[in-house]
User: What shape does this take?
Amino acid sequence: MKSELLKALNLGRTEGRPVALATLLDDGGQWLIDESSDGGGPEVIALLARTAIVEDRSQVVDCEGATLFIQVHNPPLRMVVVGAVHIAQALSPMAARTGYRVTVIDPRGAFATEERFPGVDISNEWPDEALRRIRPDGRTAVVTLTHDPKLDDAALQVALSSDAFYIGSLGSKKTHRARLNRLERLGFDKTACDRIHGPVGLHIGAESPAEIAVAILAEITQTRHMAAKLALSQGPTV
Assistant: This one.
């Protein structure tokens, strides 16, 4: 790999941009491709690379009779959980096993401890401050679980202003209606508020904290894959 290409690849990864390195195995030609640049490569290679980025999968493909290796460098999947509650204790290790970097946010230090959340990034900041620092992107899921409007609403305001692909909030339908009313009074319109999955999780009859965690992770998984299928159906831009 040429040094200029390596520098550009490392810069893209540092900036958290989805990029793909496309290499023709027959002649060694290489191009770095993202959503806004084809890296000077042929249009068909740019299309194949952007498809691989959406699929989040490095792959070897046939390209007009030549063999093309596409190495995808997507930002990591992240899950931000607001509220160090029992559901969060069950959800965090499940999410980690499915590829998410998990951060648990709770200013209540007695709840958010390493003993209760081993191996998880913990923040005792106020949720809005922590989320501004984390900067949720298109590969970040945000879940609020505290049932405390002071904490959940603070997080939701930042999440709704971000590119987070999933936003979910725990609570009954009545609680969720009240939550939406509060957010609308703060200036968030219906389109923005409709991004919130509430009550959070797929409706599978979950009752225990572990079952609710399963429902939440299932809904996050469904949302991510449905978004990818929609992007593929519309066709990656060239």
About this structure: The two ends are 24 Å apart (CA to CA). The chain has a mean pLDDT of 93.
